[in-house]
Amino acid sequence: MNAALSWPCAALPGAALADRTTMHVGGRVQWLLEPANPEELARAWNAARERGYLPRILGGGANLVIEDGELDGVVITTARMRYILRPGHSEDPRGEWTLRQDPLPAAMEDSAPRLVAWAGATIPGLVGTATKLGWSGLEGLAGIPGQVGGAAAMNAGGRWGDFWDVVESVHVLDRHSGVLRELPRAECAPSYRDGGMVDFVVLGVVVRLVKRTIPEVEAKVRDYLQTKRRVQPVTEWSAGCIFKNPSPELSDGRSAGKLIEDAGAKALSRGAAAVSALHGNFIVNSGAATAKDVLALIEDVRQLVRSKTGIELVTEVKVWRASDIVRG
Ligand SMILES: Cc1cc2nc3c(=O)[nH]c(=O)nc-3n(C[C@H](O)[C@H](O)[C@H](O)COP(=O)(O)OP(=O)(O)OC[C@H]3O[C@@H](n4cnc5c(N)ncnc54)[C@H](O)[C@@H]3O)c2cc1C
């Protein structure tokens, strides 16, 4: 490890990653880069590429399990890129990047209100901003942790809608050329829990919402939050849903959580990692779990469901392994 290596943004050598995820497991990475804005992220990315690294991108770590031990290479976190802007109203800290269009006249904003959020803005922060304005479209994401870049990459959502439903365009860095681009929604192909961003780093998004009243939007958010708190272990350490729901034809309409429950896998645990008693598709860390526990438990659950139903559950949660290719 070369602690003297200089980077075009804040950088931590040997950074611990566990507490940067909601599961709170995992080891250290050789370099953690912390750009403060999209241009800095692009410079950090290109500097890492010039040095032969293939950086990993860390958002809120809310759908991620990181292996224990030492991870080689570079992780770029978007945690410092937190701006949410209301075009034409908010002070724009980076003028030219945020929206390549003139401020919207008030009359137009009435019919097409938009927010611009940098990748590191939190999902609750974006939902909260829209709620305070009485702008509808993001309520279905109430209670989902993580950041906007992660929400775009994962197409976060649920029964009340998905993030990409309201995305008008994304500002991205092309992972191959290192060049910044703006992709209109029509050029993107998000699907269930997959934003289709494999060739890109998301720098920010423009979301287009609908004007309603503040009480209307607040009521929906409250309602969805209450439901979420009832059915998911939102106050415990977890990484959200571990598995994607299989196609209804395959599973007779049963969700991954229901398949896990029906297979008796809710009783499973490994060390301090256990399948949640509240929701079968969540694994919770009671405090001292390691990534090894969590990853072994994921395989135990997959195996039990396979043996009882013949269905092979596919992982939704992302796993960073020490063996991943991070140089090239
Ligand atoms: C209690 C709890 C409840 C949850 N409920 C839901 C739910 O209802 N619905 C749902 O969909 N999810 C849910 N999740 C999962 C999680 O909140 C979402 O997947 C969220 O979008 C992850 O965002 P993140 O910033 O934390 O991404 P991370 O976990 O940091 O990253 C996830 C993946 O996205 C990639 N990524 C992150 N940022 C970027 C970027 N800027 N550009 C390109 N790639 C990027 C990462 O490299 C990684 O592959 C829940 C999680 C928890 C802990």
Relevant terms:
328 residues, alpha+beta, Uridine Diphospho-n-acetylenolpyruvylglucosamine Reductase, domain 2, Uridine Diphospho-n-acetylenolpyruvylglucosamine Reductase, domain 3, 3 domains, five-stranded antiparallel sheet, 8 helices, 18 strands, 26% helix, binds flavin-adenine dinucleotide
Description:
The protein is an alpha+beta fold and 328 residues long. The protein has three domains: 10-77, Uridine Diphospho-n-acetylenolpyruvylglucosamine Reductase, domain 2 (2-Layer Sandwich), CATH 3.30.43; 84-227, Uridine Diphospho-n-acetylenolpyruvylglucosamine Reductase, domain 3 (2-Layer Sandwich), CATH 3.30.465.10; 235-320, Uridine Diphospho-n-acetylenolpyruvylglucosamine Reductase, domain 1 (Alpha-Beta Complex), CATH 3.90.78.10. 26% of the residues lie in helices and 23% in strands. It contains eight helices and 18 strands. The protein has helices at residues 38-50, 106-111, 123-133, 148-154, 214-231, 248-251, 256-262, 291-309; strands at 10-16, 28-34, 56-58, 64-66, 70-77, 84-85, 114-118, 135-136, 157-158, 161-162, 167-174, 180-184, 200-208, 210-211, 269-270, 273-275, 283-285, 318-320. The strands form six sheets. It has a five-stranded antiparallel beta sheet with strand order 6-7-13-11-12. Strands 1-2-5-3 form a four-stranded mixed beta sheet, covered by helices on one side. Strand 16 and strand 17 form a beta hairpin. It is globular and about 55 Å long. Mean pLDDT is 93; it is low at 95-103. The structure holds flavin-adenine dinucleotide. Flavin-adenine dinucleotide (FAD) binds next to strand 3, helix 4, strand 9 and strand 13.
